[in-house]
Amino acid sequence: MMKKILLFISIFSSLNFQAQCWIQIASGSQGSGGGFHCLGIQNDGTLWAWGLNDQGQLGDGTTINRNSPTQIGTDNDWIFVTVGTNSTYALKQDGSLWAWGNNSKGQLSDGTTTGRLSPAQVLPGTTWSKVSAGDQFVIAQKTDGTLWGCGQANNAETGLGSATEVFTFTQNTTITDWESIRSSFAHTLLRRSDGTIWGFWGGGW
C-alpha cells in the first residue's frame, strides 16, 4: 500500500511540475487547409513549437514538421503568442511584435506577401500590448490603446470597413479603451472597459 502511495505521489509531482513549465499554449485556427500547429511559452520565457510547418509557421527556420515541442531560437523574453491558420505572432517583454509563416495576404505586416521561416519583428518600435490572429489576418493593440489590423479582408476582417487587403498594420478605429481582443476564423470580438462587447465581420464596423 505504501509503495502505491509513493508511486502516486511521484507521478502527481511529475505531472504537476510539467504542467507548470508552460505559461501559455496557442493552437492554430483551422481554415484554408491549415491550422495544425501549436506554439507555447515556458515559464523561463522560451518559445516552443510543434505540428505542421509547411509554410514556416513554427518559426524554426525550416519547413519540417515537428512531432514534439522544439525550441524556437534562444530568446527567453517571450510573453504571449497567438496562432493563425499558417502564421504565428508573438510579443516580447519589451513590447515588440514578431511574426512568421504564411504571408500570402500580407498578414505578417512587412509590406510584402513573402513568407518567413523564422520570427521577424513587425515594424520598428516597442509599443504593442495585445495581438490576436484569425485565419489570414491579425488584429493588434498598441500601448496607447489604438487598434490596428492587416491581412485578408474578404469579409472585412481587418476592421477597416472594406474588403481591401492591407499589407502593413493600419489603424481601424479611434476608440482606445479595449480590454481584450479575440479573433477567430473571419471575425473579431472585443471587450471595452465599460464591459460592452463589440465585433467586426462582414461589412466591417
From TrEMBL:
<dbReference type="InterPro" id="IPR028641">
    <property type="entry name" value="RCC2"/>
</dbReference>
<dbReference type="GO" id="GO:0031267">
    <property type="term" value="F:small GTPase binding"/>
</dbReference>
<dbReference type="InterPro" id="IPR000408">
    <property type="entry name" value="Reg_chr_condens"/>
</dbReference>
<keyword id="KW-0732">Signal</keyword>
<dbReference type="GO" id="GO:0016020">
    <property type="term" value="C:membrane"/>
</dbReference>
<dbReference type="Pfam" id="PF00415">
    <property type="entry name" value="RCC1"/>
</dbReference>
<dbReference type="InterPro" id="IPR009091">
    <property type="entry name" value="RCC1/BLIP-II"/>
</dbReference>
<feature type="signal peptide">
    <location>
        <begin position="1"/>
        <end position="19"/>
    </location>
</feature>
<protein>
    <recommendedName>
        <fullName>Chromosome condensation regulator RCC1</fullName>
    </recommendedName>
</protein>
